[in-house]
Amino acid sequence: MALIVQKYGGTRVGDVERIRNVARRVAATRQAGHDVVVVVSAMARETDRLLALAHQVAERPNERELDVILATGEQVSIGLLSLAIQELGCRARSFTGNQVRILTDQTHSQARILRIDTRRVLEALEAGEVAIVAGFQGVTAEEEVTTLGRGGSDLTAVAMAAALGAQVCEIYTDVEGVYTADPDLVPTARKLRRISYEEMLELASLGARVLQTRSVEYAKNYHVPIHVRSSFSEGGGTFVVAEDAAMEKVVVSGIAYNVNEAKITVAGVADRPGVAAKLFGAVAEANVVVDMIVQNVSQDGSTTDISFTVGRPDYRKTLEIVRGVAVEIGGAAVLGNDQIAKVSIVGVGMRTHSGVAARMFEALAREKINILMISTSEIKVSCVIEARYAELAVRTLHDTFGLGEPPREEEPLPVSTGAAPGRAGRGGRRGAARRGAPRARAARRR
Ligand code: ADP
Ligand code: ASP
Ligand code: MG
Known about the structure:
This protein starts with a strand and ends with a helix. The protein has 14 helices and 20 strands. It has two domains: 3-244 and 414-435, Carbamate kinase (3-Layer(aba) Sandwich); 255-400, VC0802-like (2-Layer Sandwich), CATH 3.30.2130. The protein has helices at 16-31, 46-57, 63-87, 97-100, 119-126, 153-164, 197-205, 213-222, 275-285, 315-328, 356-366, 390-400, 429-436, 440-445, and strands at 3-8, 35-40, 92-95, 102-104, 113-116, 130-134, 137-139, 145-147, 168-173, 194-196, 226-230, 238-241, 254-258, 261-270, 290-295, 303-311, 333-337, 340-346, 373-377, 380-386. It is α/β, with parallel strands linked by helices and 446 residues long. The strands form five sheets. An eight-stranded mixed β-sheet has the order 3-6-2-1-9-11-12-10, sandwiched between helices. A four-stranded antiparallel β-sheet has the order 13-18-20-19, sandwiched between helices. The structure holds adenosine-5'-diphosphate, aspartic acid and magnesium ion.
């Protein structure tokens, strides 16, 4: 008997039939004797629809009202799922973020969880009910509705698991686990049996949307084991767990890409102290988050070039700001490019293996892909390239680092799952089918 948190993403609750499927799985877990807390997302595409609605009414919607609107998506799913579970003769009760009391700060659309009150959820469990909690939403001390950023139901689930001391946080999505690359893009991508929090954190923040970045950070901080899996099969998915010695043997664990950034270059700025501070001070004042920064060595001793990347939604705004300050810092020209992609390789093994970056650059060069910017950390190398080469680059790197090959040895799984005891670790049949028959989008792109 364990306490299990299960999170079902938007596609899992995308229509009534799928909601019934989820209800059957939840009821089965409950009937196996486990306490179950379920976190659900809004039905597929619902959050996008609500966002579009708001933008039809206001060009720049007020953030408070936007959160009021967006939080409705999850409220519909918890009610529907609760009903579906009750229809199976199992007891269930739904809770909004406010009803649980998922207390957050006041940062609308990107709120941080401050505290979770577990009392009502525990009462429901003690009464033999399944507790169904709305993902993505919270409430401030002033009773204002907040949301946790896109993909935020993952964070709700992990935070609930941490607060309740759950044995595992199961994330049910439309893929069978975390793959060596986005399986939508790379048909030969291989499902990883285990991945470290550090690697998952990098992959998520570099574009692999399978888990929200902040949810991985939270899981790492609170030692919550995550099991990413599919509700289509009983096969074991991927465990996201603390790093161990075996993981360092693998040099590259995964590839991520992000086509949602843009690059700005200020050419010919004065090469003297205070210039970068002025430029990035102005950008920071506008609440724009800067990702990569590259400053060239001065050729003539008096001027240099600075390039940096920002999220594409902030591109126009940042260009305007930079044009404003460029004059003050002796900038000759401000150039922008929003047709870029960032391709990254990630692996804790990079700490102990040399020549990894060189192999990456060689592979890109073989495909005649020009590298516009490079950044590295202990466990990742990222290259900015032209957006049109993104998919080619991901597939090439996937081949170069042999990621499609099966792992050399099987390792025991660290945590047993509640829903399918004894089954974890076997490759799902759907996984094999998927690899053989990539989705239409992937096939088209090839
Ligand atoms: P949910 O709605 O369940 O939260 P998401 O769409 O947020 O699902 O995340 C699942 C998607 O993440 C998959 O459909 C897949 O295309 C994408 N993805 C990107 N990179 C990876 C990866 N390395 N492993 C698995 N899935 C990935
Ligand atoms: N419904 C929210 C979104 O689409 C949260 C989530 O699905 O995790 O971003
Ligand atoms: Mg998601």
